[in-house]
Amino acid sequence: MLSAGHQRKREMRYAAIILAGLLAQSIRVHAGQDDAVRALRDGAYAQAEALAQAWSSEVEATNAPDSLKVAQALDLVVATALANGKAADSATLASARRAVAIKERQLGPSSADLATSLHNLAGIHDRRGEFLVALPLHERALSIRRLKVPPDSPEIADSLDARTRTLLSLDRRSDAERAIERSLVIRLAHATDSPLKLARTLELSGRAKRDAGRYQDAADDLDRALELWNQFAPNHPDKGGALDERGYVCVLQGDIPGSRRVWSEASALADERLHDWHPERARSLRSLALAEFALGELGSARALRERAVSIGERSMSSCDPEVAFQFNDLAISLQYDGDYAGAERLFRREVATMRTCLGPHHVNLATAVFNQFVLAREMGSYAEAQQLGQRAVQLWTNALGPNHPFVALGLNDLAGHFVSGAASSESITPTLLGR
What we know:
Elements: H1 4-42, H2 45-62, H3 68-83, H4 90-107, H5 112-127, H6 131-148, H7 154-169, H8 173-189, H9 195-211, H10 215-232, H11 239-252, H12 256-273, H13 279-294, H14 298-315, H15 321-336, H16 340-358, H17 363-378, H18 382-400, H19 405-420
C-alpha cells in the first residue's frame, strides 16, 4: 500500500502528463490555425481550406459547440472556403450563419469580433449575387468597426472595400466612389505594411472609373495595382482581378491585342493557382474568349465559352451575375455560327436570370436586352428588334446617364435599324460593365 506521500507524487506525475498532453494539443491546434492563415494569405486556397477544416474539427472536438473558439474556427473555415470558390456551397453559408449566431449569443450585437463573422457572411451573399442581402450585413459590420477600432484602421478599409463591391454591383456608383475615397486614405497610410491591400482598393477604384466611362483614369489605377502585385506577389491568384479589369479597359480603349495579352496572363495564373472548377477560372476563360472573338478566332472563343459555362453551372450560384454573362457570351458564339434558336434560348435565360436576381432596371440587363435586339434584327424580326433596342437605350440612359458611351452605341445601332431595317452590328457583353 502506497503512503500518502507516494500517492501524492503519482497524482502529480499523472497531472503533469495530462497537462503536457493538453499543451501539445494546444500547440498543434494553434499551429494548424497559423498554417491555414499563412496559406490563405499566400493564395494557396485549396491548402488553406483543408488546413482550416482540420483545425476546426479539432476545435469542435475539444470545445462546447456554442463556444467562441468554435465560432472563430468557423470564421477561418468560411474565409478559406470563400477564397477557394465555395460561396455557392450550402455548407459554407451554414457555417457563416452559425458563427454569427454564436457570437451574437456570447458577445452581444456590437462586438468587434462579431464584425468579422458578419463580414464573411456578407461576402458569401455577395459572391452568390444576393446583393440586397449582402449590403445590410456589410453596413452592420462597418458600423461596428467604426465604433470599436480607430478610424484609420485597415479593418475599416476592409469593410469599406467589401461594401463597395456590393454597391458597384447594385449600380450605386456615387456611393461606391465615396467609399473608395475614404478607403484609399487608409490604404495609403498603411501602404508600406500592406501594399497588396492598397492594390485591391486601387482595383476597385479602377472598376468604378471604368463603369463611369473614365477609361484612362481607370487604366492608371489598375496599372498602379498591377505594379504592386508584380513587386510583392507576382504569382498570387488575386492578381487576376486587376488583370481582368485591365483587359476590359483595353477593349474599351480599342486595344484588343492588349486585352488578349492581359487576359492570357490572367487565365494562365488561374490555371496555375486555382482548382479546376474554381469560379475565377470561368471568369478568366470568358474574358479571354472575348478577345479571341474580337480578333476573329471564333472557334477558340466558342470553346473557351463552353468551358466557362460548364464551370459556372457546376460551381456558381444561379444568381451570380457571372452565370448570366456566360449565357450571353456563349449565345453570341452560337449566333455567329448560325444557331439562332440556341442563341435565342441562352439570351432568354440570361435576361430571366438578371430580372430575377438583379431587378428589372439593372444596367447589365440593358446589355442583355441590346444583344437580343441584335439577334432579332439579324433574324428579320424588325418590330421586335425595335422594341428591344429602345428598351436597352432607355435602361442604359437611366443607369449610366445620357452621355455614357454605351448610350451612344445603342442610339447609333438603333438609328441604323430605323434607316435600313437590317443593318449589321456587333454584339457586346455585359462584362464590360461589371465583374
